[in-house]
Structure formats: C-alpha cells, structure tokens
Amino acid sequence: MAWKPIHFGLAGMMLVFGSFNTLSVKWADTMESESVDGTKRPFNHPFLQATGMFLGEMLCMVAFWIMRWRASRQPASAYPPLTDENAPKKFNPLVFLPPALCDMTATSVQYIGLTLTYASSFQMLRGAVIIFTGILSTIFLRRRLAWFKWAGMVFVIGGLVTVGVSDMLNQKDCTPSNTTDLDFNTNNSTVTQFSIMTAPISLAGTGPACKNDTTNIFVGDLLIFCSQIIVATQMVYEEKFISKYNVPALQAVGWEGTFGFSTLAVLLVPFSFIYVGPQFGNNPRHVLEDAYDGVYQLAHNPLLALAFSGTVISIAFFNFAGISITKELSATTRMVLDSVRTLVIWMVSIGVGWQAFFALQLAGFCILVVGMCLYNDILFLPTVRLVGVKLGLMDGEVAEYRDLTEEVDSGDVEREVQITKEEEEEEE
Questions:
Q1: DSSP string of 365-380?
Q2: pLDDT in tens, 12-55
Q3: Buried b / exposed e across 224-261, counting CB within 10 Å, b at 16+?
Q4: Which residues contact 64 (CB under 8 A, 6 or more apart)?
Q5: Secondary structure class of 33 (helix, strand, coil)
Q6: Could you tell me the maximum CA-CA distance found in the chain, to the nearest angstrom?
Q7: How far apart are CA 299 and CA 168, in angstroms?
Q8: For 54, how many CA atoms within 13 A lie in the half-sphere containing its CB?
Q9: Which residues, 6 or more positions from 21, have their beta carbon under 8 angstroms from its beta carbon?
Q10: Beta bridge mates, 41
Q11: What average pLDDT does the segment 396-404 reach?
C-alpha cells in the first residue's frame, strides 16, 4: 500500500509525540522546584505523573466522540457497511476496569524506575513485553507460537541483558558529601560504589554525582523489566475478553484512561499518609506520594509545569496517532515507528547530557530491533523468502506459508490450520 500524505503526518505525529512523552517525564524528573516547606527539591512524584498520563488517555475519549459526531454528519460513509461480525457489540464499561488497573500499576512502577535509570534504557527495557506476552498467550490463550517468534524472544532477551549490563558498567561514581566522617583506612577522599549490596537505594535527589549509582540503575531497570509482566497480562486480558466486543480503539483507550485516572486519583489520598522515610519519600513529610506538594512544585516552576503538561497532551496525541496508523497501515508499521522512537529518545538523551554514549547500549538496541523484527516476521524472514523464490530454492506458495490458529467456540480449544499446496489442489 502506497503511503499518502496523511500517513506521513500520522507517522510524524506518533514519532514526535511518542518521543516527547518519555522525554518530558524524564525532563520533569531532572528539575527542581520550591516545595511546600520553602526548600528546593527535585520533582520526584511518579504517582502524580502517572495520574497525568491517564488524564491524557481520557482525552482520547473526547477525540472518539468528536470523530463519531463528524461521522454522523457525513451523508455517506467511505467505509463498507457494518455486518454482524465487525459491528461493535454492547458491552459493560466495567470490562475495562481490570486492564485499567494493570495499566495503572505498570505505569506507576515504570515511572518509579524512570527516576532511577536512563530514559533510553526505560524505552528499550519496555521491549520485554514481547517475552511475557508470548509466554502468557501460550498459557491462557492456548496459542502455538511459530518458531520465528520464539527466536525473536531469544534475541529480545539478549538485547535486554546487553542493555542492563551496559547500565551497570557505565554508572557514575558516587562521591559522599562528607568523606571525613567515614573511616575506610584509606587516603582516598572519593568512594566509588560499584557494589550492588553496599550502594543505597534512594529516590531522593542526592546530587548529580550520586544520581545514577549502580544500585539505583539496577533497581530502576529491574522495576521497568518486571512491570512488563503486568503490561503483558493487560494485553492478554484485552485480547481474550475485550476484542470480541469490537470496541473502537480510541474509545477503549478512553475508558481505560477514565478508570485509571479515577482509581489513581482516589489512591493519592491514602498515599499521602503512608510514611516511607526520607530515603524513599522525597517530599517534606516523607510519605509515599504527596500530591499537594507535587502540585505546589508545578505552580512554582513554569518549565516543570510545561513538562508535566507535555506528558498529558503528548500521550493523547501519541495514542491517537498509533491507533490511526494501525488502522490505516498495519500494526507492524506501528512497531517499526516505536523502535525508531526508542532511537530518537536515546539520541536526545545523549544530546542534552542526561547520559553518555555507550557502545554496548547501542549493541543492545540493535539486538532488540532484530528480535522484534523476527517476532513480527518483518524484514529478515521476508527477505530470505524473497531471495529463495528468486533463486528458485523455494516455491512461491510455500514462501507465503503461515501457521494459523483459530479458536473453537466450544471448549475454547485451538486447532492448527496448515495451508498447503496439496489441500488447495483438492479444494479446486
């Protein structure tokens, strides 16, 4: 399918707003603002940022109703008439509550991890969702994955390990503010923390020299990696219980944003009374999340407010562009653009000085892209099949072979359907 100008516009929108969404969250994490106690503190409010993200997803519901209103005013639809199979079915909005809770939990955990590690690593480690989605789909959806999907998952694991090792090997040195009080029986005044067991875990900003020590980066990467289990659970749930309703994608995102925002907004109240100590609660009262202090900091730093607003607005445009690309082009195109988005985030992070260039991290990113391409059956395998057909080593119909699985309504059992040349001849 040839790309039209609207397709290039949607791709650019997804790339720009998707990259800005991650970068704006990290940008806010790097800024300081006046707190309610009158002191300058780093803006570390991951739960408040997650609430803003869900507010942005709620805006997708507004976009859905606008598009529906425009469609109702058109005399004739450009799309084919709806049938019983593709027409949206009535559904209870509460069906979106479980995936919204999964999204809320995963997003909050990821934002905590983002405060501890690099923005580029945050984006790359989210590729782990392929691994967990593949495993959970075989367990709960009884789906048989083709060999190239398993191969792609192996490459993704290799890429994730490479990125993690790169973060461990390239951490910044941690220089204590008062080394005279420490007796290490050494004349060196600088203590470098390379041990995960001895370096402290802290969400509080202790200065740029200690911001990215070994333990913080390790815990941040681990949180982001483990959160992908929750994301994969959300995706499998949506495929098993929601896809049958044929709910428009924008409306689905809007409902999940509504439930996620409402739930997290309510949880911010008890979070403001849960004392976690100064090491984890980087706010005047040292509680799990002080939403009032977060809003106070936003009001006293225009750039911080701009970054937070950018998170809210960009997630709405990113979801709209991504859904439109999936509808107009393909999910594969959306995956490729998402990989390019990771590269953009990595390059911007290096350009603004948030991290240095790590060749090992670039190698990990390349391995991740190879794994994603294998899993989604794009670029590599199609090229091999094309070359095989051109050289006469592979039959054209065999080159188009796919393992297809379809669900049987009774018993929810799957049977494998193999399309072969002999079966097609028998049908003829």
A1: HHHHHHHHHHHTT-SH
A2: 999 999 999 999 999 999 999 999 999 999 999 999 999 999 99
A3: bbbbbbbbbbbbbbbbeebeeeebebbbbbbbbbbbbb
A4: 248, 250, 251, 254
A5: strand
A6: 88
A7: 36
A8: 27
A9: 310, 311, 314, 315, 318
A10: 33
A11: 50
Q: How far apart are CA 189 and CA 183, in angstroms?
A: 10
Q: What is the pTM of this model?
A: 0.78
Two structure tokens written together for 128: 């782990």
Q: What's phi and psi for 110, nearest 5 deg?
A: -65, -40
User: Six-digit token pair at 286?
Assistant: 């040292």
Residues 273 and 250: their CA atoms lie apart, in Å, by: 35
Cα→Cα distances 42→200, 223, 326, Å: 18, 21, 38
> What number of helices (H) and strands (E) belong to the chain?
15, 4
Integer Cα distance of 414 and 409 in angstroms: 9
Distance CA 107, CA 257 (A): 12
Q: What is the DSSP string of 55-71?
A: HHHHHHHHHHHHHHHHH
Q: In 3D, which of 40, 351, 349 has the Cα closest to residue 205? A: 40
pLDDT value at residue 174: 52
